[in-house]
Amino acid sequence: MATKHLTGSGLLLVWTVVALSAPLMAQQTFDYPPPAYPKLRDVDGAEDLLDIARTIVNRPSREGSGFAVGWGIQPGQRVLLAPDSSFDRSVVAALEMAIREAGGKVDVLFLDYLSFFPEMKPGEATKELDYFLFLRDNAMRSKTFIADLVRGVAEYQVVIHGTGGGNPEHAGFRWEKIPWQTLDEFISGTAEYPAEIVEAIDRKTWDTLLKARKVRVTDPEGTDITWTVRREDRGEHPEQIRSRGHIGAYPPFDTKSILDAEGVIAGSSNHTGFFPQIKVYISGNNITRIEAGGSYGENWKSVLDKYKDVQWPGMPGPGMGWLYEVAVGTNPKSARPANVMIQPSRILSWERARSGIIHWGIGTQGGGQWAIDNNMPDGHFHVHTYFSTFEMETEDGETIKLIDKGHLTALDDPEIRKLAAKYGDPDEVLKEAWIPAIPGINVEGDYQRDYVADPGSWIAKEHEEVYGEWMDKHLR
Question: What is the pTM (predicted TM-score) of this model?
């Protein structure tokens, strides 16, 4: 186990590349990068997390900033820290301590809205859409509750609540996000990763995407899909840099005039869990059929059939089968949480922020009040791909790889490396902290025989071998 300690400009990151013992250990050369995992340090209490908490509290604010959050707390500010009840208490305590150190006056309020959705189990993917619709609806209710509470009870300058999404309009105070539900998320290297590096990677990735006229994405789990992009569809401004570490690589429907996405999207995970390999066939940007996927695939097909004749506002046609989102992660230190198989599964969505990982969204979006008034769902199903190659053909016929076998090529750009050198060895600063193990792709085994039917069991074994000792001490 080789551990690296990286320091520079106040940054301390610790991670490791772990060699898996038999039978997970690779015995031959593979075309894809080997597994890697963040080093999870021992934590005896909130004081051990203060170095990370101080970075977050003191880093300048950028509201809606996603995976590289800064709160910019100033002396004398009244702050309401309002996580939901799933958050690790030591993480919340460390953030509270850091706010007080910065001179803020903080109250802490835990909300328990997750307890109203008990059906989800660790690693369960079947009802992903139902689960995220629940979270979306209850998240906005909780934000509205918080806004009303603040206006009626106390005058806070800063409210910290919610892992993402929008906020009530005209709240009257600065609203910040708190995206780290679990201890391992907080200490994996993502929370304190320099925001200026993430922003530079985001910008470089977006500028590269602007050159695309034709796109082909392939992945060893079975994805192979193409589409065309017109410059006027993309535009010059990065509206789809939705948050730090999350780039929209596909034009939104309200500006798209070419509906020619053709191919298949294949994988075995989504935002809430794992499932047998699914293949989603796309023609004209719309689903034509779904193969396999176990109960997740069956649930997805039932939703498509139920709403096949319903027209959502702003969608190209009826139904819930539209390719809507191709989102690329850009933070090399994001990782799949260690406890993904022992804690409620919303935490799996964290992995999608890692640089080079694509999460595909297929369904609807933007129904808003129409969906509420007509009692309709409004959202999309997901598939994650980990080792994608994203090739773009430019207007002059040049071929550029945005992602090469799961590696975001912006990380190799000289400007990005120069910036990373401010914080240490750029090879280490920009190295992916986490790469999953998939048999037949980057470790010994056969993808069809050893993985496809039950990816969750493989991942449970993988995580137990890599993180078991740490989880025994900190989570179980």
Answer: 0.86
